[in-house]
Design brief:
- By secondary structure, the protein is of the alpha/beta class.
- It has a single domain, classed as 3-Layer(aba) Sandwich (Rossmann fold).
- It contains ten helices and seven strands.
- Strand 4, helix 7 and strand 5 form a beta-alpha-beta unit.
- The chain is globular.
- The structure holds S-adenosylmethionine (SAM).
- The site of S-adenosylmethionine has 25 residues, from helix 1, helix 5 and strand 2.
Length: about 280
């Protein structure tokens, strides 16, 4: 089994779009009036979800009419949010077929299909020409990427000189192996965490500069704790990212929090740009 297949099997989910429609119907959301904000509790599939995308977007130099790339875009929440907020176009690429299909159907539901288009592919081998994009980002994807050098080199290749690249991920902490399951792996298979210093060095070698790194562990820990407490109290809203995480969602979130608390993982938000 290739690494990519193992990643696909981890994230893939049959009937995902129908499950999402069923949840929206239970909330009495009329599909013909559906907004990007209505989907936001579910479709920003990373630690802290929608607020984390907004915080990242606040720091990015995105202009109207630009063309961005979302590498490992999931079901497309961040791409739709950025397209709507900045009036830009976003191409998304993801290795999981059910996410790609769901992303494009949700995009059509909110009427953003002229600005956002998602396709199937691997971030380690991007199907785009050199120097196409004004900016690129990848939120909580690289934990599953075995060949970081290829992933970063490809991201750099498709960016225009000076274009931004933003990355969020769980880096490997100093305190030993993480507990599993976590959102990106059930048992450690397909998980390729590396220390923050290694990520920075690989980005420099791939052609990036002005690398700014912010450790986001405290905020993520509080997000995971809040979600676990709500789940335990039976007050977790039915429409949320746990829809994408399978039956062990609460255990995954509990471990993700514990790993941060014990220094086994070290979450970061990183922004840099392609050297001119
Ligand atoms: C935690 S989800 C994040 C989704 C999205 N970035 C978001 O923030 O909503 C991780 C995503 O990475 C995708 N992925 C994992 N490895 C990938 C690869 N090599 N190339 C492209 N996508 C990949 C998975 O299919 C999944 O959609």
């Amino acid at each position: 089994m290739s690494r990519s297949e193992s990643s696909t099997e981890h994230w893939g989910q049959a009937d995902l779009y129908q499950q999402i429609l069923a949840q929206l119907s239970a909330l009495a959301k009329p599909l013909d009036k559906l907004t990007v904000e209505d989907l936001a509790p579910m479709d920003h599939f990373h630690a802290r979800g929608y607020p984390a995308t907004v915080e990242l977007a606040d720091r990015l130099p995105i202009g109207t009419g630009q063309w961005l790339l979302d590498i490992g875009c999931g079901v497309g929440g961040p791409a739709r949010y950025l397209a709507q907020r900045f009036g830009c176009s976003v191409s998304g690429i993801d290795i999981t077929e059910s996410f790609v299909e769901t992303a494009n159907r949700l995009t059509a539901l909110v009427g953003l299909e002229t600005q956002v288009r998602v396709e199937l592919g691997d971030g380690q081998r991007l199907p785009y020409a050199d120097e196409q994009f004004d900016g690129a980002y990848s939120q909580h994807v690289t934990m599953n990427v075995a060949d970081r050098a290829a992933f970063f080199t490809e991201a750099c290749r498709v960016l225009k000189p000076g274009g931004f690249f933003a990355l969020t991920e769980h880096g490997l902490g100093a305190a030993g192996a993480p507990f599993y399951p976590v959102p990106w792996s059930m048992d450690g298979s397909g998980s390729y965490l590396i220390p923050i210093d290694e990520t920075k060095a690989l980005l420099e070698e791939s052609g990036f500069e002005a690398i700014q790194i912010e450790e986001t562990g405290a905020r993520y820990l509080s997000g995971y704790r809040t979600a676990v407490a709500k789940a335990e109290a039976g007050t977790l809203p039915s429409f949320g990212v746990h829809l994408l995480m399978g039956e062990s969602a609460v255990e995954q979130m509990r471990n993700a929090g514990r790993n941060i608390e014990e220094g086994r993982t070290c979450p970061i938000q990183l922004i840099c740009r392609k050297r001119r």
